[in-house]
TrEMBL record:
Family: Belongs to the UPF0056 (MarC) family.
Organism in which the protein naturally occurs: Flagellimonas allohymeniacidonis
Membrane disposition: Multi-pass membrane protein
Protein name: UPF0056 membrane protein
Keyword presence, RNA-binding: no
Keywords recorded for this protein, A-Z: Cell membrane, Membrane, Transmembrane, Transmembrane helix
Places the protein is found: Cell membrane
Cellular component annotations (GO), alphabetically ordered: plasma membrane
Pfam families in the record: MarC
Membrane-spanning parts: 12-31, 43-66, 72-94, 101-122, 128-148, 169-190
Amino acid sequence: MNFNFKQIATATMILFAVIDILGSVPVIISLRKKVGHIQSEKASIVAACIMIAFLFVGESILSLIGIDVNSFAVAGAFIIFFLAIEMILGITLYRDDEPQSASIVPIAFPLIAGAGTMTSILSLRAEYYVENIVVAIIVNIIFVYAVLKSSSKIERVLGKNGLSIIRKVFGVILLAIAVKLFATNINQLLNN
C-alpha cells in the first residue's frame, strides 16, 4: 500500500473543486422544491460507485479506443480549465438542461460524478497512487452526503454572496490545477 497524506490531500482538494457540491447547492435546493425529497444516501453511494469504477476501468476503456492516459489528462486539463473559468467569471459555457426530477440520474450523475469529475479521476491516476485517489473519493462523497442532507441550512448560513465567494476561490484553485496538469502531461506527450 502506498498511502501518502500529501497525495490524498491534493486529490481530495482537486475532486472537491471539480465536484463543486457547494456551488451546486442552488440546483439541489431548486430540485428539492420541485420534487420534495432528495435521496441523499442513494445519490452519494451511486456517485461513489461510478467514480471508483471509472478509476479502475476508465484506463482500459481508453486503451480499447487507442488513447493513452497522458492524452486524456491533457484533454482533462482543458475541461478543468473551462470549469474554472465558469466558476471564476460566473458564466455558463455549457450546461445540460435542468433535470426534471431529483432521482439518481441528475444528482449522482452528472451533478456529482460528471464529465469533469471523470476526467479529473483519470488525470489524477496519471500522477497518483490508486489507493490515495480512492480515499480522496470517499472523503468527497462523505462531504457530498453532508451537503445534500443539509443544503437548505447551508443556503441560509452562507447566503448567495457566501456561495459565490466559495465558488470563485475554488475556481482559482482549479485553474492552477489545470495549468499544472497540462504542463506535466504535455511534457510527457512531447517526449514520447
